[in-house]
Specification:
This is GAF domain protein. The protein is an alpha+beta fold. It is built from 17 helices and 13 strands. The strands form four sheets. Strands 3-2-7-6-5 form a five-stranded antiparallel beta sheet, sandwiched between helices. It has a four-stranded mixed beta sheet with strand order 10-9-8-13. A two-stranded antiparallel sheet has the order 1-4.
Length: about 425
């Protein structure tokens, strides 16, 4: 009789008896290729994918693909670095006490952090469960983080459900972590240890922590750390967010203001050109129709009333205070070669509802800059993160680049190949 699709050890099941049956089913599959109907389909499907990738189930070990320098660089730039304090507080501390490990991978299956019980970390080194190792199915066989990544859903793997023999003494529960704005897979959170990790409680802990991490990422983007100060006031530099938003969000000090679309357009253009605009230039920038300069002046007068301490000067119209924008942040990250951070910041096109010619140009220029950087890159994690978003989902060239550089053994290769074929058919 089969087990529930998601739970590896259902409530009330005898873990020791289940392990004995799974060991026999595992041995039979490895020697004959036959699958036992009592083994969950999520497991047997993964076994078959793992074998197809060339994994040796008797001696296969995950590849360690990142050296210390590469690991440090990816950790520093990865968006999940911001979620690690939450993971440590909610999961790592209790895991260490219980004798378990907590691991966080990127979207390609590379382990970036492995924390928890020090004695268990030392034991886990023998199966290459270490930072820098590739725990995708193709590299490590059936395992919770790799299979969760392949399926984009929470997964538990109990003992002998692992395909690679060196991993069968362990159990694990894992769930993908998604970007709260775009839905892209950022990585996977995994809890590894004894059989109790594959319980209902183990998976619940992982899911709750993932939800908390995604909430923390959302909160940090709503209240990002600011730098600099408003001249003469001693306040943090105001910031303006316009990416993927119908209207901009302006933050200064502890105040957050949601702007109308017209005020969003005006403030973005003013922030993006410190030298300022003449009224006639702004009229052309905002509309293809001829707008009376008096109308622009009236809008700017209304804008002044919502700017708080920000000073709007005239002749030309300009901001007296520097305003940080998420547009400028993305440009800066790309210029510095920090592609993953740029993709994480790029939550969507600039003010997508705006029809103002100058905003449309800015929108197109930034999108082209992000795309061209991705198409010239071999960073598959950044490319897939962009491709998974609403603004990258139908981008044939980006998916084609992902397929070009993705190893055929990757857990996402088949999905990317299918997506490229589908887009190719749609585009004729």
């Amino acid at each position: 009789m089969g087990r529930p699709h998601e739970l590896a050890v259902p409530p009330g099941a005898d873990a020791a008896s289940l392990a004995r049956h799974l060991n026999r089913a595992h041995d039979d599959f490895v020697s004959t290729g036959r699958t036992d109907p009592a083994v969950r389909s999520i497991v047997t499907d993964s076994w078959q994918r793992s074998l197809a990738s060339g994994l040796d189930p008797e001696i296969g070990l995950a590849s360690v693909v990142l050296d210390d320098d590469a690991l440090a660089e990816i950790r520093a730039l990865h968006p999940l670095a911001a979620g690690m304090p939450v993971i440590r507080r909610l999961l790592v501390e209790s895991a260490a006490d219980a004798g378990h490990l907590v691991a966080v991978s990127d979207a390609a299956g590379q382990l970036l952090w492995v924390e928890g019980s020090s004695s268990l970390r030392a034991r886990a080194e023998s199966m290459h469960f270490v930072p820098g190792a590739d725990w995708s199915e193709a590299s490590a066989g059936t395992n919770a983080p790799g299979t969760a990544l392949a399926l984009d859903r929470p997964v538990q793997i109990f003992g002998p459900e692992h395909l690679a023999r060196p991993v069968t003494p362990w159990s694990c529960s894992a769930a993908p972590i998604h970007d709260p704005d775009t839905g892209a897979v950022l990585g996977v959170l995994d809890l590894t240890g004894t059989a109790e990790v594959a319980s209902v409680q183990g998976l619940s802990l992982v899911r709750a922590t993932v939800a908390a991490v995604e909430a923390e990422l959302r909160i940090q983007r709503l209240h990002p750390p600011t730098s600099g100060s408003v001249a003469g006031a001693g306040w943090s530099m105001p910031s303006l967010d316009v990416l993927g938003a119908r209207g901009a969000t302006l933050r200064h000090g502890t105040t957050t203001t949601r702007l109308s679309l017209r005020h969003s357009e005006l403030l973005l253009l003013l922030a993006d050109r410190p030298g300022g605009w003449r009224a006639g230039e702004l009229a052309v920038a905002l509309s293809d129709d001829e707008q009376a300069q008096v109308t622009i002046r009236a809008e700017l007068s209304r804008l002044r009333r919502v700017l708080g301490p920000l000073q709007l000067a005239s002749r030309p119209y300009r901001l007296e205070n520097a305003v940080a924008t998420d547009v400028a942040q993305v440009r800066d990250e790309l210029a510095a070669g920090r592609l993953r951070r740029a993709v994480a910041l790029y939550r969507g096109p600039v003010l997508p509802d705006s029809t103002a010619p100058a905003v449309q140009r800015l929108r197109d220029e930034l999108h082209l800059l992000v795309r061209s950087s991705l198409l010239a890159s071999d960073d598959v994690d950044a490319i897939l993160t962009f491709a998974d978003t609403a603004h990258g989902r139908d981008d044939f060239e980006v998916w084609e680049q992902a397929l070009r550089i993705l190893p055929s053994t990757s857990p996402r290769y088949a999905q990317v190949e299918t997506r490229v074929a589908l887009l190719d058919d749609e585009l004729g």
